[in-house]
């Protein structure tokens, strides 16, 4: 298997990307293509004494800025490290692509360079969010599409199913529609329509509406919503992670006796913190395009990059793209019968 | 001052409403009107040995069910305890109204019985949400209006300002627009338009867009959004409260030595839990109607009812309704000048 990595994406590129690539190559017995500034990557390899066995560098020094108009990836930035990586993926030179660069550009580039799976209306971003059950749920769309139609929400459920079954090995994952009430008639027109579409889809394990209150309690495997709502949920969850971390610090480091108690609790608190740590879950899969694409966090370090590559590996290994294509073809047939 | 209480609203009515009323009368030196089933309230008073000094009972035994169509408050439930309380408020028989009954019915009844302040497009529900700074922020709209226009979002900011200045005594409170990015051009058309309207309003201390990530960190006094998004934020925040409580229990009650540590931390953890406890903040003000109306939580106990009455007291004392009317009249003038 060969995973393509955007060597210039993220705050700590290219050094941490390279370190992550090296770890992934060792652990997963794969090979890697890194796109980016060849000189800088080779310098970093030398400085960090990282052997480049099974790491091929494809020179593409240009970097698309985080705040650039995403569509520029097809124009003035079509030679950038990200665009180059996506092109190599589209050409079949690798099996999946990982980037910590601009989400907008990655989404735009994936849609127009790698292209959508047949039948997919709009690709979505999935994100794993921790819960009190220690089993995260997959939130999607986490921010790709602000304005959604109900049929898009239904497709997000299929994307989630393909990912959960292929990568997380959850059989028949439960799907909830995020809404402002649990009853069938609740919410705006978008939710009401989506509810009926999801309910009618027999291949989905649709468990109905879920209020946001139930999400941190881990009552579903897949939570479906529009990208505006998803982005709010993702970021509020991140914010609560920080809130918890600040509050625990206040409680545990107040004085000498609380610090002694903190020592006793250290292991358990670390475990809790790592449960809340988004880096543990790898990156965010971009679902609905023809090959696996993973968006790594902008602040990813070597461990986060390695985890994102491992996630890409499992996407390839679990055939999520062909799984999704199959699910959507069944959906299409069902619609044709109606 | 006279506060009207819906004696039949909430899971623990009428006993806990009565106990709360009694405590409020004692603490605030006010009088109370309780609407509801006179026999049941008097029985509860006898059983709990609560004197009815300064508590007047107005018989209205009918209760509007939580799942009833809210508009029925004007029809088959126009004699209900909630409708009766709102009518008394509209007639000037009391200064504010508190109910733990159906939010939808209370919103509908307030709008059509008490009526809106001149110029208000749609009333909104405000809610205090705890933050790591130990100073909660006011979220609105927390669920009254799923579909909002940008001018409604601007008015929510004025409602928040009137409440923060009048009740919370925060001078020139900061207002943020909840969005999926901090830059001015971010978000959908609703957010872009609202941003410009808020920015143009010189009497508001508008600090720009806020991502949901920053909300639990307490970076604004007032957070403005549509009611769908607000309801998601409110409920997700509640869900995280539970998540934290479950996680702390897991950490602290794991074994004997963690339990001993928990003893040392007990006081601080209680303080943290009470920070997360929505009952501490009273109820949710319904803003934009002519008299103060407070929605108490459905599971309110005596303490929560007392806090909700105290909140109503401060709304009256702080003249929030005339403050809002004044702010909106200035807004109107400004618009006329344009």
Report the order of strands and helices of chain A: EHEHEHEHEEEHEHEEHHEEHH
Cα shape of chain A: globular
Instruction: Tell me the quaternary state.
Output: homodimer
The side-by-side strand order for the widest beta sheet of chain A comes to 3-2-1-4-12-11-5
The number of helical segments of chain A is: 10
Q: Find the biggest chain interface.
A: A-B, 49 and 49 residues
Distance between the termini of chain A: 41 Å
Number of strands of chain A: 12
Class by SSE composition of chain A: alpha/beta
Q: Tell me the Rg of chain A in angstroms.
A: 21 Å
Report the helical percentage of chain A: 40-55%
- Low-pLDDT regions of chain A: none
Main β sheet profile of chain A: 7 strands, mixed
Overall average residue pLDDT of chain A: 93
The proportion of residues in beta strands of chain A is: 5-15%
Description:
The structure is a homodimer of 338-residue chains. By secondary structure, chain A is α/β, with parallel strands linked by helices. In chain A, helix 6 (189-200) links the parallel strand 8 and strand 9. Chain A has helices at 15-28, 38-47, 81-90, 103-114, 150-166, 189-200, 227-252, 256-276, 302-317, 320-337; strands at 2-6, 31-36, 55-59, 96-99, 124-125, 127-129, 137-140, 174-178, 205-210, 222-224, 284-287, 293-295. In chain A, the strands form 2 sheets. Chain A has a 7-stranded mixed beta sheet with strand order 3-2-1-4-12-11-5, with helices on both faces. In chain A, strands 6-7-10-8-9 form a 5-stranded mixed beta sheet, with helices on both faces. Chain A contains 10 helices and 12 strands. Chains A and B meet through helix 7 and helix 8 of A and helix 7 and helix 8 of B.
